[in-house]
Amino acid sequence: MMFKKLLIEKILNGSKTITSRDKPLYRVGEVTNLMANKDYSKTTGKYIKITKVYEKSLSKFTDIDARKEGFRDLTDFMAYWNRNIGLWNPTKSVFVHEFELVDKKNRM
Questions:
Q1: What is the pTM of this model?
Q2: What is the set of domains in the chain, with CATH numbers?
Q3: What is the pLDDT of residues 14-46, one digit of tens each?
Q4: CA 108/CA 36 separation, integer angstroms
């Protein structure tokens, strides 16, 4: 799964445990490598395992969700979204992928 380098660092330090996307990219139980401009899984030996996938309206996001996304609060997450993804539209639904960091050896 592709992430910006800033978000990779948040995943590696444990502060980012969910990611929101326009469509469901993976199913529960799937393992994918951490990728940005380069394949971080090759340098870190880390992958993410998808633990839950569900649809959620942006209007339903809370500060707790924003912290799971790796941000201080909802305002911080919304500002990131507006700068990097597009206009925050409360009526838009996204697919939330919850995940855990795993080692290459323990991919399954």
A1: 0.89
A2: 5-103 (3.10.400.10)
A3: 999 999 999 999 999 999 988 766 666 677 778
A4: 22
